[in-house]
Amino acid sequence: MFTGVRPLGLALGLALSSLLAPSAVAYDRITGEPFASRSPVYAEQGMAATSQPLATQVALDILKSGGNAIDAAIAANAVLGLVEPTGCGIGGDLFAIVWDAESQQLHGLNASGRSPQSLTLEEFQRRGLDYIPPYGPLPVSVPGAVDGWFELSEKFGKLPMSQVLAPAIEYAERGFPVSDLIAYYLERSAPRLGQYPGFKETFMPEGRMPKAGERFANPGLAYSYKLLAKEGREAFYQGEIARRIDQYMKENGGFLSYEDLSSHRSEWVDPVSVDYRGVTLWELPPPGQGIAALQILKILEGYDIAAMGFDSPEYVHTFVEAKKLAFADRAKYYADPEFAQIPVKGLISAEYAQARRAEIGERAAKAVEHGNPALLHGDTIYLTTADRDGNMVSLIQSNYRGMGSGMTPPGLGFVLQDRGQLFTLEEGEANSYAPGKRPFHTIIPAFATREGKPWLSFGVMGGATQPQAHAQIIINLVDFGMNLQEAGDAPRILHTGSSQPTGEVMTDGGVVSLESGFSYQTRRELMKRGHVMQENLGGYGGYQAILFDEANGSYIGASESRKDGQAAGY
């Protein structure tokens, strides 16, 4: 059980400091003990918050050398692909939200890949499969991250990609000491993925995974990064890397082809938003699950959450029931908008939230149907950066299921993603498998504004945890008055077992897991209301955030205490 935050007790709702209070650490009124794991970080010129200190320091180095927040985000992501391969890499996809200081606008980037054109639904049926397997060649879709880097760089970046990738290349060649947490996840990945060609040669050159503190180098990844620095995105999608991926997949029963890679392009999209008590939360539209966070907040806006109190059965129950409703819609509607009509405006409207809110009762719902909004036409890493000019980047990137499919093209240093597992093989559904289609996606960046001005760039990695945690971060800040670090350190509510876009249907109400810090009395009352409570040792996500303090003209940073993260500025 997570113990990085001290138990808060029933007094938490009374003990929370205001968002920009002079005291950097809040205290529990009963115990007198601090419950934030650390103080927020303050800086004026630039800020970076990532899940690994080496990546944070590289981002700051890029900012200090004349780069902007976009350059810093790409550089940090490249380092994370090396030092945290258990959560990301250039074999995966990417989503980003950018606040452009010059235009004073938000821009959304969907850099996710599509399914292979040669792999059909009939092929899965011929093999007698009811679901797409999690590993091996079948769940592999086009990796979109590299194209995302170059799209971001070309539209907003200042530095050449050769300079942006240089720190990651140096670390990949020289090696780096593996952290405890990454060593743990690497060791867990070995039994599942070691059977696939190229994996052991890349990540287990001595026949085992590196242990904590040991130096690990990845010359294959350094080679790939050098190609990108020299030849640009074409090296990955039309050049040597594309040809080697194509050959590897053909030799190992895969379907991803050179043609799939060469035809790939990212898509710039408009973020969508809802207002919540004076804060506007922005998410990307499907195929991601970001609008689930918006739906949850709009439903909860009709309740006096602050009066309920943080550690109260009323708050936890209401939150969980709102999440069930949003996830029922997520299972029904969220998919690639090129293949399905998705009623985004209806799903996040105030009128629809009011109708769904009326479905919440005093007891835990065992089954929840999707709603019928008006159809209007029209493992993962998260990082965030900010620069002296006011640009801010919210970026999330993943292979899915930790290290991905296990399929590792030799000599390139990365694993191909298994994101295609998130299709359903049921025909006629919005998220049904089809060639050339983007699967439902779990990774979502977030951004919040106040009165049209940038306020908060943040994200919480971790599968279906993400929209639940996005909503909780906003609630912690807005309703419970926590500061930026406290909002991430506060114990989280996690509900699992909802209906899924992959076809599973909730019939038993699912399971509620509460982190250490919620009282026994709250847990007992939730059980009386019909909730199934279960301890959860992980899955509570990983938070990074940068807040722009307009009054003082500076940034405030916070980083996840549950992981290796670091927020730092200058």
Brief write-up:
By secondary structure, this protein is α+β, with helices and mostly antiparallel strands. The chain is built from 20 helices and 18 strands.
Structure description:
The chain folds into 2 domains: 9-16 and 269-380 and 441-564, Orthogonal Bundle (Serum Albumin, Chain A, Domain 1); 47-92 and 105-265 and 411-420, no CATH class. It is globular and about 60 Å long. With 570 residues, it is an alpha+beta fold. Mean pLDDT is 91; it is low at 1-34 and 374-378. Helix content is 34%, strand content 16%. Helix 6 (161-174) runs antiparallel to helix 9 (219-231) and helix 13 (290-300) crosses helix 17 (350-357). The strands form 4 sheets. It has a 7-stranded antiparallel beta sheet with strand order 1-17-16-13-12-9-8. The protein has a 7-stranded antiparallel beta sheet with strand order 7-4-3-11-10-2-18, covered by helices on one side. A two-stranded antiparallel ribbon has the order 5-6. It is built from 20 helices and 18 strands. A hairpin with a 2-residue loop joins strand 12 (446-450) and strand 13 (453-461).
| Percent range of helical residues | 25-40%
Q: What structural class should be given to the helix and strand makeup? A: alpha+beta
The average pLDDT score comes to: 91
Major sheet: 7 strands, antiparallel
Oligomer: single chain
The global form is: globular
Number of helices: 20
> What name does CATH use for the topology of the largest domain?
Serum Albumin, Chain A, Domain 1
Which consecutive residue ranges, at least 5 long each, have pLDDT under 50?
Answer: 1-34, 374-378
